Amino acid sequence: MLKFPAPFATAIFVCTNKRADGHPKPCCADRGGLELRDELKAMVRERGLDGTIKVFQSGCLGACERGPTAVRYPDGQLMLGVARADLPGILDEAAGS
Ligand code: FES
Q: Where does ligand 1 bind, in terms of residues with CB under 6 Å?
């Protein structure tokens, strides 16, 4: 195993989990998770934060009923019911502003 410091200070995981149509449990992909991930990645680029914040897609974060969901590290903030309007604040908090 190789270990080294990650080249970014903050990681934001946006749930993009997709369940089969008709599945009794909701999924973040059907609630805009993919679009939120894309928008967040674009905002990171636009703000020039590529070197400090990295956006990833994730599987289920375990809060499907309250999705779309995201989690941010290192502060470990789990965010439920994320809307597009929340994205600037999520980045502001991550950047410490
Ligand atoms: S499907 Fe997104 S939290 Fe479960």
A: 15, 17, 27-28, 60-64, 67, 69
